[in-house]
Write a sequence for this structure.
């Protein structure tokens, strides 16, 4: 077991390598540049491919090729670059190509700023490209989780033949924390569906999202929806901290969950009954636990670096059975521990629903 | 050893150069000197000393980086005021340089000043950063930084740490690696850093050896900044 100090971006890159990723295609953009930089140095050491494409559009289509051939392929970018990739992501979802896409989100809209942001939540969880599709979306909260979740992301991408997104942000990518790295894993690119030659089979494997003949498209969509249902039933992940006796539960992921946790620790030290529910999968969303907690009469505060995106999923899960408050920050600023502390205190003092 | 007027702080990406630079500038100020801090980091726009410009100004330390107003942009632009700092012979100057040889290359344009004024060139080392756990890896980096800057390293700073998981054992094990690298480079270890949670007692400090240097951490993520009272520009 090696312990090292790593930036979130570096931890994610090394975690990908150790999970068997041997193909990286990307294009530079702040604040994710440590990922391609790390990969450029590291991939040749493991006989992997690092390629800086001429654009984000090009990179995502290289992912289609490498993933379609059964390789563990990764691309990373930041918000505007992820927008450019959306057509390709829809194609990957439609053609069921396993791969991992990392968004180290920055402030938007447009070219925006370099600060952290959670305003790509809708884009990550509700489509972003065209068509009825879903990505599995993981939201790491520590550098260690960057390593752990990128490994899981590759496994789940392959298991479900579905693109997986890691939704990080500028702070998550740039902060440095101690990390324990796992052993290097050997993985095979030899998948029964991969386009690596017929090898004696009667029919060639085809990776395609086109459904233009007869009822092909409906059949493809039925298949996709059955898969998504399986993912919803089996892949929800969240962390619950002190929710059992809590009157008020903060719902937050990534950077804001860290800020909220510091605030909650201060409040608990004062004897306040407050807890944290941190979605680790943003899709599938931890709807059942929120629904349960709402039925128990808990109230919620959603803390986000956006004007309110995650909060919509919480409201849907709670379905009018509990009060949902919101504390958001516009892109360009980060909530402080003191602000979140004050917000929770004010809500507790207001009392009841 | 007589410290020179110009101290240049280099090291690998993420080795702790900014924390060392900011704390050392404050230490010089406390000893009664006029201090200017030059933030030369054009490699990465996060966790740079320029975020502390106002905070340090209140303590009488001038910070210069890029064109005023563009401090938080990721532009490879440097302010001409850097020359004013270098030409002021009453000023102790601390350079906080960008990471890796690529960051250190920026020093090249100031080379004539270093030649005439003399300089101390420090290599900040954290052997817990990936790729620097062996002395040979550290000496290789040192040679590359010297090649990129056309300058000679004069001292090594031991910043062995695992963030919040740092304890005396990790410091001690890290110190061995840094000391071995310093021996191979034939350079002294000028400072050994520690933070508030370690090495509290006088006895422990004595065991840890000379040159201990207390680091107040400034480059913290927002969830660790509770009541520090430090106003940063973001």
């Amino acid at each position: 077991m090696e312990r090292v100090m790593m930036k979130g971006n570096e931890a994610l890159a090394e975690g990908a390598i150790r999970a068997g990723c041997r193909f990286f295609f990307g294009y530079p953009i702040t604040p994710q540049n440590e990922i391609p930089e790390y990969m450029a140095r590291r991939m040749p050491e493991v006989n992997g491919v690092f390629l800086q494409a001429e654009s984000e559009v090009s990179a995502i289509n290289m992912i289609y090729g490498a993933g379609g051939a059964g390789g563990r392929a990764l691309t990373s970018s930041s918000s505007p670059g992820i927008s450019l990739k959306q057509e390709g992501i829809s194609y990957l979802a439609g053609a069921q190509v396993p791969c991992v896409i990392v968004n180290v989100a920055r402030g938007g809209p447009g070219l925006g700023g370099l600060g952290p942001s959670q305003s790509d939540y809708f884009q990550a969880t509700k489509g972003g490209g065209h068509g009825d599709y879903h990505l599995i979306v993981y939201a790491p909260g520590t550098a260690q989780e960057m390593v752990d979740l990128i490994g899981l992301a590759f496994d789940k991408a392959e298991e479900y033949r579905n693109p997986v997104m890691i939704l990080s942000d500028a702070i998550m990518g740039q902060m440095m924390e101690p990390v324990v790295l796992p052993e290097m894993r050997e993985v095979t690119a030899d998948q029964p569906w991969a386009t690596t030659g017929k090898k004696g089979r009667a029919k060639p494997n085809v990776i395609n999202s086109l459904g233009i003949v007869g009822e092909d498209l409906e059949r493809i969509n039925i298949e996709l929806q059955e898969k998504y249902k399986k993912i919803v039933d089996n892949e929800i992940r969240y962390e619950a901290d002190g929710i059992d006796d809590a009157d008020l539960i903060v719902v937050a992921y990534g950077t804001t969950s860290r800020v909220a946790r510091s605030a909650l620790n201060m409040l608990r030290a004062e004897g306040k009954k407050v807890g944290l529910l941190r979605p680790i999968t943003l899709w599938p969303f931890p709807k059942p636990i929120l629904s349960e907690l709402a039925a128990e009469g808990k109230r919620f505060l959603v803390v986000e670096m956006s004007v309110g995106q995650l909060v919509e999923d919480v409201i849907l899960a709670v379905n009018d059975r509990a009060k949902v408050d919101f504390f958001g920050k516009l892109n360009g600023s980060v909530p402080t521990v003191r602000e979140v502390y004050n917000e929770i205190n004010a809500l507790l003092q207001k009392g009841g629903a | 050893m007589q410290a020179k007027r110009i101290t240049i702080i280099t090291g690998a990406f993420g080795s702790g150069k900014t924390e060392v630079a900011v704390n050392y500038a404050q230490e010089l100020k406390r000893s009664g000197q006029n201090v200017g801090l030059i933030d030369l980091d054009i490699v990465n726009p996060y966790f740079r000393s320029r975020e502390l410009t106002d905070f340090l100004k209140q303590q009488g330390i001038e910070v210069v980086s890029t064109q005023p107003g563009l401090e938080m942009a990721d532009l490879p632009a440097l302010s001409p005021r850097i020359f004013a700092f270098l030409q002021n012979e009453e000023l102790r100057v601390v350079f906080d340089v960008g990471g890796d040889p690529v960051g250190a290359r920026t020093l090249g344009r100031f080379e004539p000043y270093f030649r005439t004024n003399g300089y101390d060139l420090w290599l900040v080392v954290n052997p817990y950063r990936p790729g620097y756990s062996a002395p040979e890896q550290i000496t290789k980096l040192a040679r590359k930084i010297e090649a990129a800057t056309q300058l000679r390293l004069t001292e090594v700073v031991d910043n062995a740490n695992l963030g919040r998981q740092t304890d005396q054992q990790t410091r001690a094990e890290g110190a061995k690696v840094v000391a071995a690298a310093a021996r191979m480079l034939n350079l002294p270890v000028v400072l050994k850093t520690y933070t508030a949670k370690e090495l509290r007692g006088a006895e422990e400090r004595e065991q840890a050896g000379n040159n201990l240097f207390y680091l107040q951490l400034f480059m913290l993520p927002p969830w660790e900044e509770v009541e520090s009272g430090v106003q940063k520009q973001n």
Notes: Chain B has a mean pLDDT of 91.
